[in-house]
From TrEMBL:
Native species: Streptomyces johnsoniae
Keyword Transmembrane helix among UniProt keywords: yes
Primary location group: membrane
Protein's UniProt name: ABC transporter permease subunit
Transmembrane stretches, start-end: 15-40, 74-94, 106-127, 304-324, 345-369, 403-424
PANTHER family given in the database record: BLL4140 PROTEIN, DIACETYLCHITOBIOSE UPTAKE SYSTEM PERMEASE PROTEIN DASB
Domain of life where this protein originates: Bacteria
Pfam families: BPD_transp_1
Family, as annotated: Belongs to the binding-protein-dependent transport system permease family.
CDD domains reported for this sequence: TM_PBP2
Domain ABC transmembrane type-1: 70-423
Keyword Cell membrane found: yes
Membrane topology summary: Multi-pass membrane protein
Renumbered residue ranges of the record's region Disordered: 149-168
Amino acid sequence: MASGKVAVIKARPSVVASFLLPALLLLGALVVYPIGYSIWRSLFDASGDSYVGLDNFKELFTNDGIRTALKNNLIWIVVAPTVATALGLVFAVLTERIRWATAFKLIIFMPMAISMLAAGIIFRLVYEQNPDRGVANAVMTTVHDSFADSPAWPDAQPRPDGPVEAQEDGSYLLTSPAEVGSPAMLPLVAVPQPELADAAPAAVPQAPGDQVTGTVWMDFTRGGGGTDGAVDPEEKGLSGITVQAVADGEVVAETTTAEDGTFALPAEADGAQVRLAGSDFQAPYNGAEWLGPSVITPAIIGSYVWMWAGFAMVLIAAGLAGVPRDTLEAARVDGANEWQVFRRITVPLLAPVLAVVMVTLMINVLKIFDLVYIIAPTSTQDEANVLALQLYLSSFGTDSHQGVGSAIAVFLLVLVLPVMIINVRRLRRENQR
């Protein structure tokens, strides 16, 4: 063979066709035919008998549920790829400077080994409202309770038809004025027995005659019996409750109940009304409503980023390995700090890789279905809806309309095609360099 020439092996067309035919048949059966049938089906009504033209496509922009899905898809396309790529870039750059980079990358990439279904189940539990089950709210309540006092008895309520009345601000007010030498009895109920396990027995205060005294206690005897409004032997005192003496709308004295529920106010409280502060009976802080209508979409995006940030990190780390080190060192020698090197040299050199990652993730989020379907409860699924989920619901859900479902499928194809073309062209340009 002559020097500088490349030998080309020519094959007969029949041989080429025999090799390509199975792949072409498979491609036609799994790709071409479904696309063609979806386009044809989108032009007919729900039964598939009557031709309706573009009416199904008009439905995409007039139906409130589908419009919500379109809006959510726009949020997904903008937020999810951007956040995942940014985190991947940060992780890729930082792991170059740590000794245990391989272990760190393994941990970050590990969620990619989990299926979308399994990840959805995991985050459905993570986002549970009850802090005893949901990890997210368990962390939030722990941090919150570290800086704020928890309510003393959040379940306690005044005894029905008793001397204590609930106020609009959440406080409990003794209807009769306080008197020196006459104990103010404030019976409460509805406290679960487990919360009373460590409580001391309630007592009637024995205090000097120059103070206003009283007792706040759980006025309930297990097994029945006892006297309403009176402290019985088995009944428990409610400690730590803020007791206030209120006169003309102002607090003139304040104290806190002891372990046995007793309290003592100075003589200034004589003739005032005794009030139990509402802060002692407020519901405890249980964190955010992650699965509620206001934050359900950001919550699901967070689970997606958890899965795909590792994918972005691996691709960006591969691109970072090809960045010339002498360029970075030259910038540092010229006096650039690490932030300037990162912003003006590393990021521009990684721009082609970042673009590929962004485009790949944009295509991926257009098809997002599993996470939304699993994580979002039925009550908020409409607020978290996306096009792929709406396609499924329109085609196979209650009151299915496969014409509209096919129109959504065609619309998704139209959205994905430009992004795919851009990605293919970019890859070709990279290969030609």
